[in-house]
Structures are given as C-alpha cells and as structure tokens.
Amino acid sequence: MSDFHGVSVLVSGGTRGIGRAIVTAFAQGGARVTFTGRDARAAEETCAGSGAPDRCRFVAGDVSTAEAAEAAVAAAVEHGGGLDVLVNNAGITRDTLLLRMSQEDWDRVLAVNLTGAWQLTRAAARRLMKSRRGRIVNITSVVGLMGNAGQANYAASKAGLIGLTRSVARELAGRGVTANAVAPGFIQTDMTAGLPPGAADELQGRIPLGRLGTPEDVAAVVAFLAGETAGYITGQVIPVDGGMVM
Ligand code: NDP
User: Fold this and answer.
1) Which three-class secondary structure state does DSSP give residue 155?
2) pLDDT at 202
3) Is the minimum distance from the CB of 15 to ligand 1 under 6 angstroms?
4) Which atom of ligand 1 is nearest to the CA of 143?
C-alpha cells in the first residue's frame, strides 16, 4: 500500500459500500479524505470505521449538481490543503427492460453516474493540475464493457464514464495528471443485495474465481492507481471482477 501522508483525496459516494472501503483505504494510508453522499448518519459510520476519523470529512450533496461539485472540491481543498486525488464513485441503478424504462429512469442514472463524474472532474481539474501527483480514478462497471439486459441506462452511463476517463487522460496528461477507470464485476454491497433469490448463486457460477467481490477488493486497486508507483498508467480500464471479463 502506498503512503498517502500529506495527500488530499476526494471520494464521491463514501457513505456506503465500495466508496466507504475507498475512504477507509486512503485514511488508513495517511491521507486526508473528504467524501460526499446524502446520508449524514451513514457518513458518521464511515468516519468512525475508517480508523482515522480525524482525517475524514463528510460534505453532503447531490453529486449531479454543479453547486455540490464546487462545494465538495472547496471542502477537500480546505481539509487537505489542496487536492491530489479524485475518485468518482457515486452511482445508482434503476434497472428495467428497455420497453419499460421511463425518461426519469434514464435521466436520473445518467445524471448521477455520468454527469456527476463530469461535474466533479471539471470542478477539480485546476486543483489536480497544481498537484505534484494529480490522479483521477473513476468507478465504472464491467457492464459498461459488456452491456446487460435490463440496464440500458446504467450500462450507457458506465460506458460513457470510460469515454470521459480516456478523454480526460489525454487532456490532462501534459499536466502530469493520470485518469483511469476501475470496472468492478459483482461486489457485495447494498447495490447487489436486492438480487432475486438464486441470482447470486447463478452469478457466482459465471465468475472464474468462484466468489462475489468485496468492496476492499475494489478499494485496493483504486489505492494502487492513486499511488506514487502508478504514475505511468493512464487512460486504462482495470476490471476487478474475479475473471468474468477476459
Ligand atoms: P451503494 O449503493 O452501496 O453506494 C452508493 C454510494 O453512492 C452511496 O455512498 C450513496 O450515498 C452515493 N450516491 C448515490 N447517489 C448519490 C447522489 N445523487 N449524490 C451523492 N452521492 C450519491 O453502491 P456500491 O458501493 O455498490 O457502488 C459504488 C460504485 O461502484 C457505483 O458507481 C456503482 O455503479 C459501482 N459498481 C458497483 C458494483 C457492485 O456490484 N456493487 C459493480 C460495478 C460497479 P448516499 O446514499 O449517502 O447518497
């Protein structure tokens, strides 16, 4: 694990699941971590469980708005004395088949998963360029690579996030900022807890490593990409999926 002492990190959607594990990984590595979300009580649990509550700060807000993005970046700069690492993790699903998908289902998923990441990236870019080691890590999904029946909105948002990652990687490379994406497979969080009975077993059978992933499996790769030793990796998508996509 890299040493993150003196490093300022901003994570969107750190109140639960994968985001909480990412906050914890950075806080335990010594970083000053600012994270967003909407559930203040869950945010307290994230800080308390991180092992370094004094280095954690929560800023409430809906990631899809420009105001919340500006406020989150300002809070991270204040808390961390600048901004070195941005992790766009906040995401939602509104799954249904194409013919049943409402405009609202489409718009909301795109607004949170894709526009939210763009808002934060835009708000953070100048600060990241000022950093000696600017890093952006976007949490996409294997579904953004493969597609998935019943997830046209979600898969489009996650595929879009890959395009955003690669464009930003090209734009900011000259300023020493890397941008990469991590594509989790099926990870045990609230997002996958609602799978119908039997579906988890069926999924497990399609995973060569034979188990669903944990939030910590994903956080470890995020920390690697944000670390000092990953400075020559940019524009890449790293699946963390037990071998599902290969
Ligand atoms: P969870 O549902 O457990 O957590 C989602 C997080 O996003 C919460 O912290 C939530 O905070 C935050 N969030 C949701 N909407 C908003 C919003 N409008 N504004 C601010 N924060 C918001 O999801 P996971 O931990 O499972 O997923 C994290 C990321 O990983 C997502 O981008 C997801 O698409 C991706 N992913 C997950 C996989 C899985 O199998 N679990 C697989 C592939 C990708 P709050 O509720 O406080 O607003």
Assistant:
1) helix
2) 85
3) yes
4) 43
